[in-house]
Write a structure and sequence with these properties.
The protein is of the alpha/beta class. It is built from eleven helices and eight strands. The longest helix has 22 residues. The structure holds guanosine-5'-diphosphate (GDP).
Protein backbone atom coordinates (compact mmCIF):
# COMPACT_ATOMS: atom_id res chain seq x y z
CA UNK A 1 0.00 0.00 0.00
CA UNK A 2 2.93 2.30 0.70
CA UNK A 3 4.06 1.73 -2.87
CA UNK A 4 0.64 2.68 -4.22
CA UNK A 5 0.47 5.71 -2.04
CA UNK A 6 3.87 6.82 -3.26
CA UNK A 7 2.72 6.41 -6.83
CA UNK A 8 -0.40 8.44 -6.23
CA UNK A 9 1.55 11.11 -4.41
CA UNK A 10 4.03 11.31 -7.25
CA UNK A 11 1.45 11.94 -9.93
CA UNK A 12 -0.33 14.44 -7.74
CA UNK A 13 2.74 16.14 -6.34
CA UNK A 14 2.29 19.25 -8.45
CA UNK A 15 -1.16 19.75 -6.97
CA UNK A 16 -0.02 19.17 -3.40
CA UNK A 17 3.05 21.31 -3.83
CA UNK A 18 1.05 24.07 -5.48
CA UNK A 19 -1.46 24.18 -2.65
CA UNK A 20 1.13 24.03 0.09
CA UNK A 21 3.27 26.77 -1.39
CA UNK A 22 0.22 29.01 -1.74
CA UNK A 23 -0.72 28.37 1.89
CA UNK A 24 2.71 29.22 3.18
CA UNK A 25 2.76 32.71 1.76
CA UNK A 26 3.16 35.51 4.29
CA UNK A 27 -0.18 37.01 3.46
CA UNK A 28 -3.31 35.07 2.66
CA UNK A 29 -4.95 37.74 0.54
CA UNK A 30 -7.77 37.70 -1.97
CA UNK A 31 -5.57 36.68 -4.90
CA UNK A 32 -4.02 33.84 -2.93
CA UNK A 33 -7.45 32.40 -2.12
CA UNK A 34 -8.36 32.71 -5.78
CA UNK A 35 -5.22 30.86 -6.76
CA UNK A 36 -6.05 28.09 -4.30
CA UNK A 37 -9.51 27.86 -5.82
CA UNK A 38 -8.06 27.77 -9.35
CA UNK A 39 -5.61 25.06 -8.33
CA UNK A 40 -8.47 22.90 -7.06
CA UNK A 41 -10.52 23.52 -10.20
CA UNK A 42 -7.51 22.63 -12.35
CA UNK A 43 -7.36 19.35 -10.45
CA UNK A 44 -10.88 18.56 -11.72
CA UNK A 45 -12.55 19.00 -8.34
CA UNK A 46 -15.36 20.90 -10.03
CA UNK A 47 -16.17 24.60 -9.71
CA UNK A 48 -18.86 24.37 -7.03
CA UNK A 49 -16.98 22.07 -4.66
CA UNK A 50 -13.80 24.14 -5.10
CA UNK A 51 -15.59 27.42 -4.37
CA UNK A 52 -17.43 26.00 -1.38
CA UNK A 53 -14.28 24.47 0.01
CA UNK A 54 -12.28 27.68 -0.27
CA UNK A 55 -15.13 29.70 1.29
CA UNK A 56 -15.26 27.36 4.28
CA UNK A 57 -11.49 27.31 4.66
CA UNK A 58 -11.30 31.11 4.47
CA UNK A 59 -13.96 31.48 7.09
CA UNK A 60 -12.23 29.06 9.47
CA UNK A 61 -8.89 30.81 8.96
CA UNK A 62 -10.58 34.16 9.60
CA UNK A 63 -12.31 32.99 12.78
CA UNK A 64 -9.07 31.52 14.10
CA UNK A 65 -7.18 34.66 13.12
CA UNK A 66 -4.20 32.53 12.15
CA UNK A 67 -1.58 32.66 9.43
CA UNK A 68 0.37 29.71 10.69
CA UNK A 69 1.00 27.59 7.57
CA UNK A 70 0.80 24.31 9.48
CA UNK A 71 -2.58 25.23 10.97
CA UNK A 72 -3.93 26.34 7.61
CA UNK A 73 -2.60 23.17 6.03
CA UNK A 74 -4.37 21.06 8.66
CA UNK A 75 -7.61 22.92 8.01
CA UNK A 76 -7.22 22.41 4.27
CA UNK A 77 -6.67 18.71 4.90
CA UNK A 78 -9.85 18.52 6.96
CA UNK A 79 -11.87 20.36 4.34
CA UNK A 80 -10.54 18.17 1.53
CA UNK A 81 -11.42 15.02 3.46
CA UNK A 82 -14.91 16.39 4.10
CA UNK A 83 -15.47 17.12 0.42
CA UNK A 84 -14.29 13.61 -0.54
CA UNK A 85 -16.78 12.38 2.08
CA UNK A 86 -15.39 9.91 4.61
CA UNK A 87 -18.92 8.77 5.57
CA UNK A 88 -19.73 6.92 2.32
CA UNK A 89 -19.81 3.13 2.49
CA UNK A 90 -17.01 2.05 0.17
CA UNK A 91 -16.95 -1.65 0.96
CA UNK A 92 -17.25 -3.98 -2.01
CA UNK A 93 -20.33 -6.21 -1.75
CA UNK A 94 -18.82 -9.60 -2.51
CA UNK A 95 -20.26 -11.83 0.23
CA UNK A 96 -21.98 -14.90 -1.20
CA UNK A 97 -25.51 -15.61 0.00
CA UNK A 98 -26.64 -19.12 1.07
CA UNK A 99 -26.88 -20.72 -2.32
CA UNK A 100 -25.82 -17.82 -4.50
CA UNK A 101 -22.55 -16.33 -5.57
CA UNK A 102 -22.12 -12.58 -5.25
CA UNK A 103 -22.42 -11.15 -8.76
CA UNK A 104 -20.44 -8.09 -9.83
CA UNK A 105 -21.08 -6.42 -13.18
CA UNK A 106 -18.35 -4.15 -14.54
CA UNK A 107 -19.30 -1.45 -17.06
CA UNK A 108 -17.59 1.50 -18.74
CA UNK A 109 -16.34 2.74 -22.12
CA UNK A 110 -13.70 0.85 -24.06
CA UNK A 111 -10.23 1.63 -22.86
CA UNK A 112 -11.32 2.79 -19.40
CA UNK A 113 -9.70 -0.26 -17.85
CA UNK A 114 -12.64 -2.65 -17.30
CA UNK A 115 -10.91 -5.88 -18.20
CA UNK A 116 -7.78 -4.94 -16.28
CA UNK A 117 -9.92 -4.04 -13.27
CA UNK A 118 -11.80 -7.35 -13.39
CA UNK A 119 -8.44 -9.13 -13.41
CA UNK A 120 -7.16 -7.08 -10.48
CA UNK A 121 -10.34 -7.62 -8.42
CA UNK A 122 -10.17 -11.36 -9.14
CA UNK A 123 -6.59 -11.33 -7.90
CA UNK A 124 -7.61 -9.68 -4.60
CA UNK A 125 -10.50 -12.10 -4.09
CA UNK A 126 -8.35 -15.15 -4.81
CA UNK A 127 -5.79 -13.87 -2.31
CA UNK A 128 -8.65 -13.78 0.22
CA UNK A 129 -9.30 -17.47 -0.57
CA UNK A 130 -12.53 -16.90 -2.39
CA UNK A 131 -13.49 -18.84 -5.50
CA UNK A 132 -14.04 -16.64 -8.55
CA UNK A 133 -15.51 -17.10 -12.02
CA UNK A 134 -15.17 -14.54 -14.83
CA UNK A 135 -17.84 -13.90 -17.47
CA UNK A 136 -16.77 -12.37 -20.79
CA UNK A 137 -19.93 -10.55 -21.83
CA UNK A 138 -18.11 -8.45 -24.40
CA UNK A 139 -18.85 -10.78 -27.29
CA UNK A 140 -18.47 -8.06 -29.89
CA UNK A 141 -14.69 -8.11 -29.93
CA UNK A 142 -13.02 -11.52 -29.82
CA UNK A 143 -9.90 -9.83 -28.50
CA UNK A 144 -11.79 -8.61 -25.44
CA UNK A 145 -12.79 -12.12 -24.34
CA UNK A 146 -9.28 -13.29 -25.10
CA UNK A 147 -7.81 -10.55 -22.91
CA UNK A 148 -10.15 -11.44 -20.04
CA UNK A 149 -9.30 -15.14 -20.33
CA UNK A 150 -5.62 -14.22 -20.20
CA UNK A 151 -6.22 -12.36 -16.96
CA UNK A 152 -8.15 -15.38 -15.69
CA UNK A 153 -5.18 -17.64 -16.40
CA UNK A 154 -2.83 -15.19 -14.77
CA UNK A 155 -4.77 -15.13 -11.51
CA UNK A 156 -5.86 -18.78 -11.72
CA UNK A 157 -9.62 -18.54 -12.31
CA UNK A 158 -11.92 -19.83 -15.06
CA UNK A 159 -13.50 -17.63 -17.70
CA UNK A 160 -16.92 -18.30 -19.25
CA UNK A 161 -16.91 -17.22 -22.89
CA UNK A 162 -19.47 -17.14 -25.66
CA UNK A 163 -18.92 -17.41 -29.38
CA UNK A 164 -18.05 -14.17 -31.13
CA UNK A 165 -21.29 -12.28 -31.72
CA UNK A 166 -23.22 -14.32 -29.12
CA UNK A 167 -25.80 -12.52 -26.99
CA UNK A 168 -23.82 -10.87 -24.15
CA UNK A 169 -26.74 -11.44 -21.78
CA UNK A 170 -26.66 -15.17 -22.43
CA UNK A 171 -22.95 -15.29 -21.58
CA UNK A 172 -23.63 -13.43 -18.34
CA UNK A 173 -26.49 -15.83 -17.57
CA UNK A 174 -24.31 -18.87 -18.23
CA UNK A 175 -21.55 -17.50 -16.00
CA UNK A 176 -23.93 -16.91 -13.09
CA UNK A 177 -25.68 -20.25 -13.62
CA UNK A 178 -22.33 -22.02 -13.56
CA UNK A 179 -21.35 -20.07 -10.45
CA UNK A 180 -24.56 -21.35 -8.79
CA UNK A 181 -23.81 -24.95 -9.77
CA UNK A 182 -20.21 -24.84 -8.68
CA UNK A 183 -20.74 -22.97 -5.43
CA UNK A 184 -18.52 -20.11 -6.59
CA UNK A 185 -18.15 -17.20 -4.17
CA UNK A 186 -17.99 -14.35 -6.68
CA UNK A 187 -18.87 -14.06 -10.39
CA UNK A 188 -17.28 -11.05 -12.10
CA UNK A 189 -18.80 -10.05 -15.43
CA UNK A 190 -16.92 -7.89 -17.94
CA UNK A 191 -19.04 -6.04 -20.52
CA UNK A 192 -18.71 -4.22 -23.84
CA UNK A 193 -18.20 -0.48 -23.90
CA UNK A 194 -18.34 0.82 -27.42
CA UNK A 195 -20.16 4.11 -27.30
CA UNK A 196 -20.69 4.62 -31.06
CA UNK A 197 -24.19 3.29 -30.72
CA UNK A 198 -25.15 4.70 -27.36
CA UNK A 199 -28.75 3.55 -27.30
CA UNK A 200 -27.83 0.04 -28.42
CA UNK A 201 -25.13 -0.27 -25.80
CA UNK A 202 -27.31 1.01 -22.99
CA UNK A 203 -30.15 -1.34 -23.92
CA UNK A 204 -27.64 -4.18 -24.04
CA UNK A 205 -26.25 -3.39 -20.60
CA UNK A 206 -29.70 -3.15 -19.08
CA UNK A 207 -30.50 -6.55 -20.49
CA UNK A 208 -27.20 -8.09 -19.32
CA UNK A 209 -27.95 -6.82 -15.83
CA UNK A 210 -31.50 -8.24 -15.79
CA UNK A 211 -30.62 -11.57 -17.31
CA UNK A 212 -27.53 -12.10 -15.16
CA UNK A 213 -29.76 -11.93 -12.06
CA UNK A 214 -32.16 -14.60 -13.35
CA UNK A 215 -30.38 -17.73 -12.12
CA UNK A 216 -30.16 -16.28 -8.57
CA UNK A 217 -32.59 -17.24 -5.79
CA UNK A 218 -35.76 -15.14 -5.55
CA UNK A 219 -34.61 -13.35 -2.40
CA UNK A 220 -31.42 -12.30 -4.19
CA UNK A 221 -33.23 -10.10 -6.64
CA UNK A 222 -30.49 -7.92 -8.03
CA UNK A 223 -26.76 -7.96 -8.62
CA UNK A 224 -24.48 -7.25 -5.68
CA UNK A 225 -22.39 -4.61 -7.39
CA UNK A 226 -22.55 -2.70 -10.65
CA UNK A 227 -19.18 -1.00 -10.91
CA UNK A 228 -18.56 1.82 -13.34
CA UNK A 229 -14.95 1.95 -14.45
CA UNK A 230 -13.86 5.47 -15.29
CA UNK A 231 -10.51 6.68 -16.63
CA UNK A 232 -9.39 9.52 -14.35
CA UNK A 233 -7.37 11.11 -17.14
CA UNK A 234 -10.48 11.84 -19.24
CA UNK A 235 -11.70 14.46 -16.79
CA UNK A 236 -14.99 16.20 -17.50
CA UNK A 237 -15.40 14.26 -20.78
CA UNK A 238 -15.53 11.05 -18.84
CA UNK A 239 -18.16 12.57 -16.59
CA UNK A 240 -20.63 12.86 -19.45
CA UNK A 241 -20.13 9.21 -20.30
CA UNK A 242 -20.46 8.28 -16.66
CA UNK A 243 -23.91 9.86 -16.57
CA UNK A 244 -25.03 7.91 -19.63
CA UNK A 245 -24.02 4.66 -17.95
CA UNK A 246 -25.62 5.50 -14.66
CA UNK A 247 -28.89 6.15 -16.46
CA UNK A 248 -28.75 2.75 -18.16
CA UNK A 249 -27.84 0.63 -15.13
CA UNK A 250 -28.01 1.43 -11.46
CA UNK A 251 -24.37 1.98 -10.54
CA UNK A 252 -23.39 0.95 -7.00
CA UNK A 253 -19.77 2.06 -7.06
CA UNK A 254 -17.06 3.69 -9.13
CA UNK A 255 -13.60 2.41 -9.96
CA UNK A 256 -11.35 5.29 -10.94
CA UNK A 257 -8.45 4.01 -13.05
CA UNK A 258 -5.16 5.55 -14.16
CA UNK A 259 -4.86 7.82 -11.14
CA UNK A 260 -1.15 7.07 -11.44
CA UNK A 261 -1.06 9.11 -14.63
CA UNK A 262 -2.82 12.32 -13.64
CA UNK A 263 -2.54 15.19 -11.22
CA UNK A 264 -6.30 15.64 -11.47
CA UNK A 265 -7.26 13.63 -8.42
CA UNK A 266 -10.13 16.04 -7.78
CA UNK A 267 -12.15 14.02 -10.28
CA UNK A 268 -13.00 11.72 -7.35
CA UNK A 269 -15.13 14.48 -5.86
CA UNK A 270 -16.67 15.55 -9.15
CA UNK A 271 -17.76 12.05 -10.13
CA UNK A 272 -19.15 11.18 -6.71
CA UNK A 273 -21.23 14.35 -6.77
CA UNK A 274 -22.45 13.76 -10.31
CA UNK A 275 -23.48 10.15 -9.74
CA UNK A 276 -24.23 10.08 -6.02
CA UNK A 277 -22.27 6.86 -5.50
CA UNK A 278 -18.88 6.31 -3.87
CA UNK A 279 -15.53 5.70 -5.48
CA UNK A 280 -14.76 2.25 -4.08
CA UNK A 281 -11.51 1.31 -5.78
CA UNK A 282 -8.70 3.11 -7.55
CA UNK A 283 -6.37 1.88 -10.26
CA UNK A 284 -2.76 2.96 -9.92
CA UNK A 285 -1.04 1.14 -12.75
CA UNK A 286 -1.28 -1.66 -15.30
CA UNK A 287 -0.05 -4.46 -13.05
CA UNK A 288 -2.14 -7.07 -11.26
CA UNK A 289 -1.48 -5.54 -7.85
CA UNK A 290 -2.09 -1.92 -8.84
CA UNK A 291 -5.57 -1.68 -7.35
CA UNK A 292 -6.34 -0.13 -3.98
CA UNK A 293 -9.43 0.38 -1.89
CA UNK A 294 -10.28 4.05 -1.84
CA UNK A 295 -10.27 5.88 1.43
CA UNK A 296 -10.84 9.60 1.83
CA UNK A 297 -8.16 10.42 4.40
CA UNK A 298 -5.47 8.30 2.77
CA UNK A 299 -6.23 9.86 -0.59
CA UNK A 300 -6.03 13.42 0.72
CA UNK A 301 -2.82 12.66 2.58
CA UNK A 302 -1.29 11.29 -0.62
CA UNK A 303 -2.47 14.42 -2.42
CA UNK A 304 -0.82 16.70 0.12
CA UNK A 305 2.28 14.56 0.62
P1 LIG B 1 -11.32 -1.88 -21.24
O1 LIG B 1 -11.43 -1.66 -22.74
O2 LIG B 1 -12.21 -0.95 -20.49
O3 LIG B 1 -11.53 -3.30 -20.84
O4 LIG B 1 -9.85 -1.44 -20.83
P2 LIG B 1 -8.55 -2.34 -20.56
O5 LIG B 1 -8.69 -3.09 -19.31
O6 LIG B 1 -8.25 -3.11 -21.79
O7 LIG B 1 -7.45 -1.20 -20.32
C1 LIG B 1 -7.09 -0.28 -21.32
C2 LIG B 1 -5.63 0.13 -21.09
O8 LIG B 1 -5.52 0.87 -19.87
C3 LIG B 1 -4.68 -1.04 -20.95
O9 LIG B 1 -3.48 -0.72 -21.63
C4 LIG B 1 -4.45 -1.15 -19.45
O10 LIG B 1 -3.20 -1.71 -19.14
C5 LIG B 1 -4.52 0.31 -19.04
N1 LIG B 1 -4.91 0.51 -17.61
C6 LIG B 1 -5.98 -0.02 -16.97
N2 LIG B 1 -6.03 0.41 -15.68
C7 LIG B 1 -4.95 1.23 -15.50
C8 LIG B 1 -4.45 2.00 -14.38
O11 LIG B 1 -5.00 2.04 -13.28
N3 LIG B 1 -3.30 2.73 -14.62
C9 LIG B 1 -2.68 2.72 -15.83
N4 LIG B 1 -1.58 3.47 -15.95
N5 LIG B 1 -3.13 2.03 -16.89
C10 LIG B 1 -4.24 1.28 -16.73
Amino acid sequence: LAKLRARLAKSNSSLGRGLLSLLSRDTLDESTWEEIEDTLIMADLGVDPATELVDRLRERVRVLGTRDPQTVRDLLREELIAVVDPTMDRSLQVERADSDPAVVLVVGVNGAGKTTTVGKIARVLVAEDRSVLLGAADTFRAAAAEQLATWGERVGVETVRGLEGADPASVAYTAVERGMQEGTDVVLIDTAGRLQNKKGLMDELGKVKRVAARPLSPEHDSLDEVLLVLDATTGQNGMQQAKVFSEAVNITGIVLTKLDGTAKGGIVVAVQRALGVPVKLIGLGEGADDLAPFDAAGFVDALLA
